[in-house]
Amino acid sequence: MIPSPVIPKFDAALFDAIHRDVPTYLPPEDHKEAITWVLSIAAVITLIHFVLLQIVKVLQGNKGGPTPHATWKASYQLTNLLVNLVLGCVGIYYQLYIVKWDETIIDRIVGHEHMMFFSATQVGYQLWALPIGIIFIGETKSMIIHHVAVICVGSVTAFISCGFRYFTPYFYGMIEISSVPLSVMNAFKNNPHWIEKYPNVYKNVRLVFGITFLLVRVVLWTPIYGNFFSLVSMLLYSSDIYSTQIILTIFTLASLVLTILQYFWASKIIAALVKGGSENKVAKKLD
To answer: What is the DSSP string of 13-73?
Structure first.
């Protein structure tokens, strides 16, 4: 189920009890598991990308010499498609069958260590995407900021006791389903002759991308983030531990950056859909 978007009232006694009874960090064995998961995910995605890179090179007829930028970009987008498809589907499953919409306040903040893998997977994923995106793809500044911000919020939810892991199936999983049609749309953009040959398919992919993005990253994101933001703000306000304040401040600011980016990209999508324009307007604006 989708988490209840209701913004709770501040309960000073409850938050004082959380700060008093809940340690800042998860136990060392949980940290070891998270680090192992992060490194394993980064290694697996790197391997998948390497295999896809070789496949794309063969399909593009590049038999030797330096790997062209187009080959790096195509293999990068294919890898993103696969990872986002898995994260999106797993996130949807958890939202439908695991997450309780009426979970208590304390259970939204603490616990749910069994869902730590969403956080660790996102951190591992971004650790792969960040250097590849900068060195070989030439990603935009907004995407680089996105990668760094996800690493920040993912690290908090993976290693801190008050990690708000209740929200991770949605924010680290379900929303990624919108990136699947984006990858397909980018593939069309990289191969203009596909657009000429299959204009209706491309048009429908753009439409599906726009609808899914606006649905999961704006319509659903806004009330769910409001619930999350109110809780993390209350936890930060009620804390008198310096280290906790620093961690929660970074956590909150990074989440705000990610939210602003969603609205920034959504405004471009809406503008492109309203204006119509050329067939690849949305893809160009998000590249």
So the answer is: HHHHHHHHHS-SB--HHHHHHHHHHHHHHHHHHHHHHHHHHHHHHHHTT--SSSPPHHHHH
Strand partners, 160: 25
Structure-token pair, residue 254: 């990074």
Q: What are the tens digits of pLDDT across the range 259-276?
A: 999 999 999 999 888 876
**DSSP-based three-state secondary structure for 161:** coil
pTM score of the predicted model: 0.90
Structure tokens at 7: 């913004």
Q: What is the pLDDT of residues 145-178, one digit of tens each?
A: 999 999 999 999 999 999 999 999 999 999 999 9
> What count of Cα atoms within 13 Å lies in the side-chain half-sphere of residue 211?
6
183 and 77 in contact (C-beta within 8 Å)?
yes
| Gap between the Cα atoms of 89 and 130, Å rounded | 23
Neighbours of 242 (CB within 10 A): 8
Q: At what angle do helices 221-238 and 242-275 cross, to 10 degrees?
A: 160
Q: How far is CA 135 from CA 48, 75, 129, in A?
A: 18, 14, 10
Q: Compute φ and ψ for 229, nearest 5 degrees.
A: -65, -40
